[in-house]
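Design job #97: recover the sequence.
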């Protein structure tokens, strides 16, 4: 009976750790591709390449200087297939609630996925790919301009 309990406890701990990793907002960097504007506003739909890291529906984007841009409403592949996540190297159409093309965002702009502070603390303890770690370090540097203790 004790062996069964120990096995159950280990399985549950592994499952919870996997769920926690999935729910984290991972760092990502995107490039707004030239001549890939599909709709200018309400929401803006633009073609982007994931330069590093990963991006999910519902995440917030910010410019490289830390200016908030908006929230990702949907991601679509070249095959017009809706996806929940895009990884490094993927090119997707991104619907973003908030910005207007030409006013708030421009072609060839680059964006970061805005990682919440509590997620940044947890991400420091996880083995990230080198590019994800580089993006996370840059995000921490940006946020620490306003709040010296951000992510500590």
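Job complete. Output follows.
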């Amino acid at each position: 009976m004790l062996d069964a309990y120990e096995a159950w406890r280990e399985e549950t701990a592994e499952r919870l750790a996997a769920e926690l990793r999935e729910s984290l907002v991972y760092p990502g960097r995107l490039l707004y591709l030239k001549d890939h504007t599909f709709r200018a506003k309400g929401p803006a739909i633009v073609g982007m390449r994931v330069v590093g890291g990963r991006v999910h529906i519902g995440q917030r984007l910010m410019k490289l200087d830390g200016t908030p841009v908006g929230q990702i409403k949907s991601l679509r592949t070249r095959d017009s297939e809706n996806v929940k996540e895009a990884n490094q190297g993927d090119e997707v159409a991104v619907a973003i609630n908030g910005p207007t093309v030409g006013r708030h965002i421009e072609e060839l702009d680059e964006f970061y996925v805005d990682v919440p502070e509590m997620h940044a603390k947890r991400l420091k303890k996880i083995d990230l790919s080198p590019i994800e770690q580089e993006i996370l370090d840059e995000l921490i540097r940006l946020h620490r301009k306003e709040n010296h203790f951000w992510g500590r």
